[in-house]
Amino acid sequence: MIEEGNKMVKISILGGGKEIGRSGFGIHEDNTTILLDYGVMLKENRPIFPLSIPPREIDGIILTHAHLDHSGALPIFYISESPRIYMKSITKELTELLIRDLLHLSSYLLPYEA
Q1: Contacts by 47-50 with C-beta closer than 8 Å and gap 24+?
Q2: Is the dihedral of CA 84, 24, 32, 79 positive or negative?
Q3: What is the mean pLDDT of residues 95-114?
Q4: For the chain, which domains are there?
């Protein structure tokens, strides 16, 4: 937790803390939650997901770059909710290509489908 004045910001490590892959961080202040990246780690052609966070709790997503370890789990948020994602246009183009490839190659199953 980070305190500044009367405000407190809580940071949740959802993945990627002690490993390479499945990077995801929740940044919480008051009633606002921003997700910083939400990637996968590929293990034996199966994606390993970060800890879950309910899509309805997300107010927005910031994507730092297109690598799948930072972006690969984003499709989870487009099943029922669709929070706004902030990224550069080149990141958007590359992310769409990489996720499409991931879905095709790995028979991407959502964590609760397995």
Answers
A1: 47/72, 47/73, 47/102, 47/106, 47/108, 48/21, 48/22, 49/15, 49/22, 49/73, 49/76, 49/111, 50/14, 50/15, 50/16, 50/22, 50/23, 50/24
A2: positive
A3: 69
A4: 2-105 (3.60.15.10)
DSSP assignment string, the chain = -EEETTEEEEEEEEE-SSSSS--EEEEEETTEEEEEEE--EEETTEEEPPPP--GGG-SEEE-----HHHHTTGGGGGSS----EE--HHHHHHHHHHHHHHHHHHT---TTT-
**pLDDT category of residue 114 using cuts at 50, 70 and 90:** very low
90, two tokens: 């080149």
8 A C-beta contact, residue 72 and residue 108: no
